[in-house]
Amino acid sequence: MKARYHSLTISIKRKADRYFLTFKAIGTLSIEDYQMITPIINATIKSEQHPKLDILLDITQFNGGQCMPQ
Q1: S-S: 62 plus which of 1, 25, 51, 54, CB 3.0-4.6 Å?
Q2: What is d(CA 56, CA 20) in angstroms, rounded to the nearest whole number?
Q3: Contact (CB, 8 A) for 58 and 23
Q4: Nearest-angstrom CA–CA distance, 22 and 30
């Protein structure tokens, strides 16, 4: 089944210096979606010099995304 809308859900959990990030992408993501993600992740992990990341991507309903401008 193809999604008729798009959404991006982000969850960030932290325990000491380890971060667990989960992403669920539905539909076709826009450039604005990607521009939103980057500062959120950077702000979350910038306090650690060498953060440890565990990442789970749920792309079972992901249809792709727009290309980033060069």
Answers
A1: 25
A2: 8
A3: yes
A4: 19
Token pair 């932290």: residue? 14
Q: What CA–CA distance (Å, rounded) separates 43 from 68?
A: 21
Calpha distance 54→5 (Å, rounded): 28
Residues 27-70 have pLDDT tens digits of: 988 888 888 888 988 888 887 888 899 999 999 999 888 775 55
Domain that includes residue 43, residue range:
7-64
In a domain, 70, yes or no: no
pTM for this one? 0.73
What single-letter amino acid sits at 18?
R
**Burial class of residue 65 in the structure, from the number of CB atoms within 10 Å of its CB (0-12 exposed, 13-18 middle, 19+ buried):** middle
